[in-house]
Amino acid sequence: MKKTLSFLTIAILLGLGAFFLYDNYLKDYIPNIFHLEPIELSVYAPSSLRTPLDKVKEAYQSENPSVTLTISYKSSYEITKDILAGKKPDLAIVASQKDLQQITSKALIAPDTQEVLAKNTVVLIAPVDSGLNSVEGLTSNKIEKIAVGNPDSTSIGHYTTSILKNMGLLNSLEWKFREQKNVQEIVKKVGDKSDEAGIVFRSDALTNPKVKVAAEFPQTTYTPITYTMFETATEKNEHFGNVKALEEYLLSESAQKLLTDSGFTSVVTSKTDKNAK
Questions:
Q1: 190 within 8 A of 198, measured Cβ to Cβ
Q2: Domain ranges of the chain
């Protein structure tokens, strides 16, 4: 009888100790699996990720009903500007290595949290019935307006300037540029035939049936386009475990498929690919 009471006492003490440890130290570092307290995670993401991330959000919230994802879509430049100004989203994604380096240099990224989410390429677009089918065709007198991003405030604008400069075409084409505030505006201008051509990421070209990919820019003319996700540096991340769970989901095969369906290049090797090796 005494032994039974001793075991019971030990079990109760261990249980109380585990509860104390969880409630005071581990609660913020374990994903919201065993309890259903409402959790809201803030995410900053480039506008070009809107289509696949909206689908990821729907799927993730369906599987995790207590979690709400609040995604703010902006240019990488605007995301960087916000973070430098003190904003601290739970998770941020940028498509510009220049912006990523700027945030890193200010020690605003939590250690060991950078992860490449996806990759992209740069393409030339034109109205679906256009005869334009090469980058060199931009020099034609028939092409008078080329929709591009602002090189100082958009990733695609920065890449456009760099690519055309490397191809020796920047000086001859610059007078045709019609700068837009984001990639969606570029696609819209070309789709509406306001401009005869535009330069965007491949993923953006697939969002409008009124435009076609007229040509691919040589990948040797620009640095690889990577979408890097990271957690912002903070004294204590109250949602640490939940953010980690979201990151793992974004790198899962199901989420990566949503990205590839939208024109991005996956960074994850599928199980099928692994088995084939």
A1: yes
A2: 32-119+225-268, 122-216
pLDDT tens track for 147-195: 999 998 888 999 999 999 999 999 999 999 999 988 889 999 999 999 9
Label residue 74 exposed, middle or buried (CB < 10 Å: 0-12, 13-18, 19+).
Answer: middle
- Could you tell me the pLDDT band of residue 244, with boundaries at 50, 70 and 90? very high
* Among the listed residues 158, 162, 150, 167, the one whose alpha carbon sits nearest the alpha carbon of residue 95: 158
- CA–CA distances in Å: residue 222 to residues 85, 148, 173, 229: 29, 16, 18, 21
Q: pLDDT at residue 228 above 70?
A: yes
DSSP-derived 3-state class of residue 168: coil
- Same fold? 32-119+225-268, 122-216: yes
**What is the CATH number that goes with domain 122-216?**
3.40.190.10
As a whole number of angstroms, the distance between CA 203 and CA 182 comes to 13
Q: Please name the residues in contact with 37: beta carbons below 8 A apart, sequence gap of 6 or more.
A: 66
CATH number of 32-119+225-268: 3.40.190.10
| The model's pTM | 0.77
> CB of 264 within 8 A of CB of 224?
no
Per-residue tokens: 271: 């199980």
Q: How far is CA 80 from CA 16, 22, 96, 101, 184, in A?
A: 45, 35, 10, 10, 20
For residue 252, what are its two tokens?
């899962």
Asked if pLDDT for residue 270 goes beyond 80, the answer is: no
Q: Cβ neighbours of residue 6 under 8 Å, at least 6 residues apart?
A: none
State the residue for tokens 């601290």: 88
